[in-house]
Amino acid sequence: MPAVTTDQMREIDRVAVDEVGLNLYQMMENAGRNLAEFCMEFLGDQWDGAHIVVLAGSGGNGGGGMCAARHLANHGAAVTLVPTTLEGLRGVPADQFALYRATAGRVAEFSEISEIDHLNTDLVVDAVLGYSLHGAPRGTAADMIKWVSAHGAPVISLDVPSGIDSTTGGTAGDHVQATVTMTLALPKTGLDGDAVGRLCVADIGIPQDVFNRVGVHPPRALFIKGYRVWISSGPDPDNHFTNREQGVPPTNHGDHP
């Protein structure tokens, strides 16, 4: 299984959109729906009674988180979406936010996070920063990362734990410690540290020819058994989540006392 650097992943995205014709809406929708299903599997039979907090940045990673929040809300989950900004959204993430607002899910500003602390949060979704991170997280994104670290609920990170360099695995400031990371399309070279937790890769619909044009050659049968594939088990002392699509007997977070 090849792992790609940030520059390679950026080129894969460019070729997919500019040369092959896949669009950002499709990839974001595929990522968000995959993430929502992943959250439901993680929480087990109690997922529909769980409270899920989705922290979302203003870029593509955040848009994927907002999309997941919509799918979770549509299926009856109690979701609170906390964007880094309510005013600075543009493009596809702004569209995803507008779609989420049409659900029964809650929207909260980060300044209201103390109210969320009083709720019984069963799962935090980290969709704050993706592979485009440059330097240390700043502003509200940095404050969100610190909140996640202090909260104690299990965390599913989308693509890359926020604050982690997807090429090197290094950190220039605070970062999220994920329980599980669901990375997109292919593993990233920096996702080999403890901060990643368990790692799986999710299909977002990129055709094989895109990878070929970039000189990356994942197995053609990579997603033959489902839309998500486990890459590593990782350190996970308190949760024993497994992927039902891969035929492993499930023992989910929701089964724990």
Key features of this structure:
257 residues; alpha/beta; Rossmann fold; eight-stranded mixed sheet; globular; disordered C terminus
CATH topology: Rossmann fold
Q: Strand pairing plus helix content: what structural class?
A: alpha/beta
Give the biggest beta sheet: 8 strands, mixed
| CATH class descriptor name | Alpha Beta
Strand content bin: 5-15%
C-alpha geometry? globular
Q: How many individual domains?
A: 1
Q: What string gives the helices and strands in order? A: HHEHEHEHEHEEEHE
Please, could you describe this protein's structure?
By secondary structure, this protein is an alpha/beta fold. The protein has a single domain (6-235), classed as YjeF N-terminal domain (Rossmann fold). 33% of the residues lie in helices and 15% in strands. Helix 3 packs parallel to helix 4. Mean pLDDT is 87; it is low at 234-257.
Element layout with pairings:
Layout: H1 6-20, H2 24-43, E1 51-56, H3 60-74, E2 78-83, H4 91-101, E3 106-107, H5 113-117, E4 123-127, H6 139-151, E5 155-158, E6 180-184, E7 198-202, H7 208-214, E8 228-232
Parallel strand pairs: 1-2, 1-4, 2-3, 4-5, 5-6, 6-7
Antiparallel strand pairs: 7-8
Helix pairs in contact: 1-7, 2-3, 3-4
In short:
The chain has seven helices and eight strands. With 257 residues, the protein is of the alpha/beta class.
